[in-house]
Design goal:
The protein is an alpha+beta fold and 140 residues long. Helices cover 37% and strands 11% of the residues. The chain has one domain. A four-stranded antiparallel β-sheet has the order 2-1-3-4. The radius of gyration is 15 Å and the shape is globular.
Length: 140
């Protein structure tokens, strides 16, 4: 989840190979906090600077808006972006993960006021940084 090119939040999704499809949706993600935390701590956190840089580049190209970027972890080390869309939050995933959310390292501060306050601060910061340019915000 991004505000322009700034990373607001990161959510981990995965799907077992045994399901026979590479498509990963929110409800496909097994409620396994140990595995989700492992993926986040071992594969996402160590690459946060690279992820932030990727999202900054996407924000520079796409312009100011609220985005959800689906970034894959490739076996060869790349971080391909398979989807970029306008979105304020990922309610489907948040609802799905709610039963185990207190056990997930990447979901601390993701809910309600904390998320909205963080998004608001990032919108203001992004607008300040773009004040010398003529931009319009897109909300959906």
């Amino acid at each position: 989840m991004c505000v322009a090119g700034y990373v607001l939040d990161i959510y981990v999704r995965w799907r077992p190979v045994e399901d026979g499809t590479p498509n990963v949706h929110s409800i496909d993600t097994p409620l396994d906090p140990e595995l989700l935390n492992f993926i986040y701590l071992q594969h996402v956190q160590p690459r946060m600077e690279e992820i932030r840089s990727l999202c900054a580049n996407l924000g520079a190209v796409l312009g100011p808006a609220l985005y959800a970027h689906d970034i894959l972890l490739s076996r060869d080390g790349r971080l391909p972006v398979c989807e970029a869309g306008l979105k304020f939050d990922d309610a489907t995933l948040l609802d799905h993960l709610w039963p185990v959310s207190s056990e997930l390292d990447f979901m601390r501060g993701t809910f309600a006021y904390e998320f909205a306050e963080k998004a608001g601060r990032m919108i203001v910061e992004s607008a300040k940084n773009k004040s010398s340019q003529s931009t319009e915000w897109i909300f959906s």
